[in-house]
Fold:
Amino acid sequence: METQTEKKKFHKLLFIKTCFWFAVIMLLFAVVLGFVYMRLYEQTIMENYREQTKAKAESVAKRCAGFFLVGDSGGWQEYLRMLTEIEQVEVWAIYNENAVHPLPKTFAISRDELGEANSRYRDILNNVFHNIPASKSAEFSEVHQMNIITVGMPVQGVNGEVAGGILMNVRVENQKEVVDSSWRLIIISSAIALAVAIVTALFYVRTLSNPILKIRRTALELADGNYEVTTDVKRSDEIGELAYTMDFLSEKLKENEIERRNLEQMRFDFFANVSHELRTPITVMRAYTESLVDGVVTKPEKIQRSYERMLGECQGMERLVGDLLLLSKMQNPDFAVEKEPVNLVQIFEDLKKSAWAIGKEKNITADLYTELPVIMMLGDYDRLRQMFLVILDNAVKFSPEDSVVHIRITCDEQITVSIRDEGIGISEEEQKYIFEKFYKSRLRQNAKGSGLGLAIAKQIALKHGGTIEIQSEVGKGTEIIFTFPELENYTM
Structure:
């Protein structure tokens, strides 16, 4: 039997595993979802910010072209100063040294004046001087010591010529802070989700582990031989089906245990009855043998009677052993009778010669009624004759003098054979045991019986696919009814 410690250990193990996997799933879900969301969010923010910067750079390039065409360098410088202060952006005007009419030095600077940053902006300026707007994604700048976005826009001069370009650097530190804040929010949300998952797992484990523990306890009880235990789990899911299966197993084991005990009791009763039945004839034979050996019996006629009595007891034991062997053979599931077409009417015509010889002393007659002169079925002629002879013998044995034994054979989808006497009848209590081995009533008519006849008759009926029933009332007689499978299965 499992101990309380084992129960707690099992419950704790299941709880830890369930909570662990709940937490892992929730955590993975949060991390993956957060990572995908933040990547998309970051890309969207940066893309929008880059587009806004492009729009600003385009506006600045147009203003620069306007100041350039009217030659207002002072206005341009004032505009750059205000733009830098208000927008907090870094703007450079670079003249195109290859243009016919480049931006003047009062408007712009050359590439060389960019210094170390020249290499960073080389590709952008090459595109800009070919009248192609260009940009560079946010990246860390050694010069500015922060992440910046760089956008380049061409400045249209005389006759649409690219006179120069505008370089605009925008800090993205604020945007990075937004992204970092979002990451912190996701981490906090994941921690809350993890806590919720653990709490949910706690309740879930209880609803899951409690029935499992009950099923486990039931299985251990069944292993210990307690077949009365049930799970008491009523659920409509797979665990409920498992509990129902366990309860079904418990019921079947209980039935098998009852059957085993019954068989054990029958085996015990069998040996007890056999011992009892053999003890009397053996005792009688020993007594007569000792009398003969000791010379107690000396008269020839008494010696002859002793021999006759010993022979009778031997014949009785021989019949008992034969009946036991026959009954054992009939009860073997592998034993099958050899069947052939048999006329039931012919069997009873044959039985009248044997049975009425038994009832001749009591002047008992038979009334045989058949619907047809020939009623065929498949069966073993000798076994069927033996079965009906047992019933007729009992009918004659328990019937009063000058009475009638009524035999009726009908066939309507099945064959029915009824044998009814006008005897003393059988009580309702005795009817429950009438077909049991070695069962004998205490009536004087059963003094010489072995108690195996009706048990053999029942087994013969079962081997022929039939049934045997008894209807009786004390003082009014007994009726034995045989039924066999549908006639169409056995017609010739």
